[in-house]
Design goal:
Elements lengths: L17 E5 L12 H54 L9 H15 L6 E5 L5 E4 L13 H8 L10 E5 L15 E9 L5 E9 L1 H93 L3 H28 L2 H5 L2 H13 L4 E6 L7 H22 L3 E8 L3 E8 L6 H6 L8 H11 L2 E6 L5 E8 L2
Parallel strand pairs: 7-8
Antiparallel strand pairs: 1-10, 2-3, 2-6, 4-5, 5-6, 8-9, 9-11, 10-11
Helix pairs in contact: 1-2, 1-4, 4-5, 7-8, 8-10
Length: 468
């Protein structure tokens, strides 16, 4: 919040601001309901949900597609090993006999290689490649991994139980001829020669089938999920439209009732003020004149004691008239209703000037306040200036009314004796300046009231009213 601050004089550090009242930032009138904004929020929320579903679904589909493709490659390798590779293995293949290699190559090219199988290798337990469709690899020796060695060392298990499959990174030396084909799925399992010697049958499948499977899974998931979300949004729109229409009508009715109640309250205050001023105040004024005349008559007739009593009674009546007129200004300030807030504040300043206090007014011409806001400003200003007149013993007072983009700021500062503001706020029972009344009316309006004072440092008040 912007704070208007002054010191009592040069080099004097003003006391810190203390919160007297702090209501909510909202005014009494609710902001208008805009259905298009609610619909935009709904659509934006649906888009966010759809994006999240697409992101999570894409990741999940990719993982499921990869796992499913690896599993398919494992089943394919197991089937090819049992039906094609193992029946074609001979003992002569162990010594790389050309006829045995040629027989295996014929079987591989006719029954194994396909667009979904791009490389075939058969290893012995020592890491030597006995056969490959890439002839340059035959006879070369590479270090087998621990998992492959363990798989060759165990007895032949049931169909598929001893097949291993994974995505190959193609960084091993034996994969140098496969590196130009992109990512591949690597699958291997043990086979046996006719004499029961273990060999390792290995195939490589293109990774592209993972993308195909991922697209299939994502298509099914996205179709069901996105259509369900769109149908849900479509079903919510008419229901939301109906609720918004009812809410708009209800809000309009509440605002109309508030305006009616405010108008009725203003009219009733005007009626009461006029009735009291025309009857009670005039009667009291007449009674004051009559009692004063009676005091003068008693003095001339030689009754000084009675004359003094009647003069005291007349003074009491005049004091009551003054208090009653102050009450009438509180109930319905005539200048505020007829001439506006600037004129009402000017009248308050004139009343204080008549007591010998110099009052400076710095008032913006436009405040942007409604009638309730103007009454709040007037009431706070009147209470603060009344306190200056009764307690402050000030010589100068500044009354400032400034409008910003979002706030209307009323600041009242005097160079009086000041008081212990922190102690007063900590112990409300010491309240002698109408502080409790100010606290309640400001808090109820949703505004904020600040106080800064200490003995010998003057007093500063600041009222901040949010503008609609």
């Amino acid at each position: 919040m912007t704070v208007v601050g002054t010191g009592k004089g040069q080099g004097v550090v003003p006391p810190p601001w203390l919160h007297v009242a702090a209501g909510s930032s909202a005014r009494l009138a609710e902001p208008p309901l805009r259905p298009w904004r609610v619909f935009c929020q709904l659509v934006a929320g649906a888009l966010v949900v759809i994006s999240l579903v697409a992101l999570v679904g894409g990741v999940a589909s990719r993982r499921l597609g990869e796992a499913d493709s690896v599993s398919d490659a494992a089943r394919t390798a197991n089937l090819l090993a049992v039906t094609a590779a193992q029946p074609a293995v001979s003992e002569a293949l162990l010594v790389s006999d050309p006829s045995a290699v040629a027989a295996m190559d014929k079987v591989v090219r006719e029954r194994v290689l396909s667009p979904s199988i791009v490389r075939v290798k058969i290893w012995d337990p020592q890491g030597r490649i006995l056969y490959s469709d890439a002839a340059a690899l035959i006879g070369q020796r590479f270090l087998l991994g621990q998992e492959e060695q363990n798989l060759l060392a165990q007895p032949l298990l049931r169909l598929g139980a001893d097949t291993r499959a994974d995505v190959s990174d193609l960084t091993a030396p034996e994969n140098r001829l496969e590196r130009g084909q992109g990512r591949l799925l690597e699958v291997y399992r043990p086979i046996r020669t006719p004499s029961g010697k273990p060999l390792l049958f290995e195939i490589y499948a293109p990774y592209g089938q993972v993308a195909v499977r991922t697209g299939q899974l994502w298509g099914g998931l996205a179709g069901v999920t996105l259509i369900s979300l769109l149908l849900l949004v479509a079903l919510m729109l008419p229901v939301l439209w109906t609720l918004l229409n009812r809410l708009s009508r209800s809000q309009a009715q509440r605002e109309a009732l508030l305006r009616h109640a405010n108008d009725a309250s203003t009219q009733e205050r005007r009626r009461l003020a006029g009735a009291i001023d025309d009857s009670v105040v005039q009667d009291l004024v007449g009674a004051s004149f009559a009692v004063a005349a009676g005091a003068e008559r008693a003095r001339t007739l030689g009754g000084p004691e009675l004359a003094d009593q009647l003069r005291a009674a007349a003074g009491t009546v005049r004091t009551s008239i003054g208090g009653l007129r102050s009450l009438l200004v509180d109930v319905y300030p005539a200048s505020l209703a007829t001439a506006g807030l600037r004129a009402a504040l000017t009248d308050l300043a004139s009343s204080l000037r008549s007591r010998g206090t110099a009052v400076t007014l710095d008032l913006d011409p436009e405040t942007g306040l409604d009638a309730a806001g103007e009454r709040l400003v007037f009431r706070v200003a009147r209470e603060c200036l009344a306190n200056v007149a009764k307690h402050a013993a000030a010589t100068t007072v500044l009354v400032s009314l400034k409008r910003t983009d979002r706030l209307l700021l009323l600041a009242i500062m005097d160079d009086g004796v000041g008081f212990d503001a922190a102690g007063l706020l900590a112990d409300p029972t010491q309240d002698h300046v109408g502080l409790g009344v100010l606290r309640d009316v400001v808090a109820d309006s949703g505004s904020e009231l600040l106080l800064s004072s200490r003995p010998g440092a003057g007093t500063r008040w600041q009222l901040a009213i949010p503008l609609a």
